[in-house]
TrEMBL record:
<protein>
    <submittedName>
        <fullName>Ribonuclease HI family protein</fullName>
    </submittedName>
</protein>
<feature type="domain" description="RNase H type-1">
    <location>
        <begin position="6"/>
        <end position="127"/>
    </location>
</feature>
<dbReference type="Pfam" id="PF13456">
    <property type="entry name" value="RVT_3"/>
</dbReference>
<dbReference type="InterPro" id="IPR053151">
    <property type="entry name" value="RNase_H-like"/>
</dbReference>
<dbReference type="InterPro" id="IPR012337">
    <property type="entry name" value="RNaseH-like_sf"/>
</dbReference>
<dbReference type="GO" id="GO:0004523">
    <property type="term" value="F:RNA-DNA hybrid ribonuclease activity"/>
</dbReference>
<dbReference type="InterPro" id="IPR002156">
    <property type="entry name" value="RNaseH_domain"/>
</dbReference>
<dbReference type="InterPro" id="IPR036397">
    <property type="entry name" value="RNaseH_sf"/>
</dbReference>
<dbReference type="GO" id="GO:0003676">
    <property type="term" value="F:nucleic acid binding"/>
</dbReference>
Length: 132
């Protein structure tokens, strides 16, 4: 089983963004941080955190594994679960994520409170600082 914690961070309300991912597998933890080149809002950064996590899983050929992925973004969780969001940009991201998730046998997205996602949050903030 693979447990992922994901988070996105943005400079102010709209601007530079970073993504943090903590990958836990076989009692080992791997941190990832990615500065994003495009300016965006925080919700978009959270969606991109999930997209990048899915990309990492695919590159590692983990589509057949049991995956628990936790996010502290209620917007991302709800949009992906419903495959819908009324805001067009988020709706497109949710659809793309669900298309990517079709390749996975057992991918479970979980919502957690911010306090339970601090590792990914710290990595996302570090990724944001890498751009300064």
């Amino acid at each position: 089983m693979i447990r992922l914690s994901i988070d996105g961070s943005v400079d102010n309300q709209y601007g530079k963004a970073g993504v943090g991912i903590v990958w836990n597998e076989n009692k080992q933890s791997k941190p990832f941080k990615f500065p994003l080149q495009q300016e965006m809002d925080n919700h978009q950064a959270e969606f991109w955190a999930l997209r990048i996590a899915i990309e990492l899983l695919k590159k590692a050929h983990k589509e057949g594994e049991i995956i628990l992925c936790q996010t502290d973004s209620r917007t991302v969780f709800d949009a992906v679960e419903k495959n819908y969001h009324p805001q067009n940009t988020y709706n497109r991201l949710a659809h793309r994520i669900n298309e990517d998730l079709a390749d996975f046998d057992q991918f479970n997205l979980l919502w957690v409170p911010e306090r339970d996602n601090r590792g990914a949050d710290n990595l996302a903030k570090q990724a944001l600082q890498m751009q300064s």
